[in-house]
Design brief:
five-stranded mixed sheet; rod-shaped; alpha/beta; four-stranded parallel sheet
Length: about 270
């Protein structure tokens, strides 16, 4: 028969075990609630993150009227299909290229980084595509930079009709100088020997050679060029494209009995 002391000890142990089990159950419930709260917190955090407005994608095509202002850091700006001519465009951040296909009276580019002038070819190319209305602009292009940069405004449809005579005879290999800054078109009849054509005006923006086959040839600044008997122009110093003509043509040589037309596009 179980003694009283043994029975009391057994009951006390059972009571202690029951209390430990209750405390453990309570702890487990607390842990489960904590995990549930943490999970809910993560869920709310994920929801909040999803609801955070995403930064807008910087536009590469801007369609508006009146004033166009680009203030976001973009690598390329293309303005086209404008319902009305743009009165003023301001670009306040560095850009790599600007394409303008509609009438614009004024373009301002601010805070451009220090980059070589050759990097502005795309800007020059874009400006060259402007229609005739651009002629009405008093200051079509302004470049505000940390270094001097010259940007050419060139309307390919505009050719003045001024002419000037050559300083020396043509046909025997003599030198010829285009002296007037108002020269637009002058024909050169090249003889059997080489004839040098020198564009001397420092204000000259572009000199175009047109040979017998009506092929238009563009020359870069500070470069000599050879028009050989094969009617093919070789520009010394690398290939020169239409929109790289910034500066003065120093020398043009031609040979082979071909007719040569020098066309100067004025400001």
């Amino acid at each position: 028969m179980e003694s009283l002391e043994t029975r009391l000890a057994r009951l006390e142990k059972a009571e202690r075990d029951q209390k430990k089990e209750q405390e453990l159950t309570k702890t487990l419930k607390g842990i489960q609630k904590t995990f549930a709260d943490v999970s809910e917190g993560f869920r709310l955090l994920e929801k909040a993150i999803r609801e955070i407005p995403k930064p807008p994608k910087y536009p590469t095509h801007i369609k508006t009227d009146g004033t166009v202002e680009v203030t976001n850091p973009v690598t390329e700006v293309s303005v086209s299909n404008l319902p009305e001519p743009v009165e003023k465009m301001t670009i306040k951040n560095p850009v790599e290229s600007v394409t303008i296909k509609n009438p614009v009276k004024e373009v301002k580019i601010k805070n451009l980084p220090k980059i070589p002038i050759i990097s502005f070819k795309s800007i020059i190319r874009a400006i060259a595509e402007l229609p005739d209305k651009i002629k009405q602009a008093t200051q079509p292009v302004q470049i505000m930079n940390e270094q001097p940069v010259r940007v050419v405004l060139f309307d390919p449809k505009r050719r003045e009709t001024y002419r000037a005579s050559f300083a020396a005879a043509i046909g025997g290999g003599g030198a010829t100088t285009l002296r007037s800054s108002n020269i637009s078109s002058t024909s050169v009849s090249v003889g059997a020997s080489s004839t040098a054509v020198i564009a001397a005006s420092r204000d000259r923006l572009k000199v175009v050679l047109v040979n017998d086959s009506d092929e238009t040839i563009y020359l870069g600044f500070n470069s000599a060029a050879i028009l050989n008997q094969g009617i093919r122009l070789n520009a010394r110093g690398g290939t020169v494209t239409e929109y790289e003509n910034i500066g003065t043509i120093t020398a043009i040589c031609a040979s082979g009995g071909k007719n040569l037309t020098v066309i100067n596009h004025l400001k």
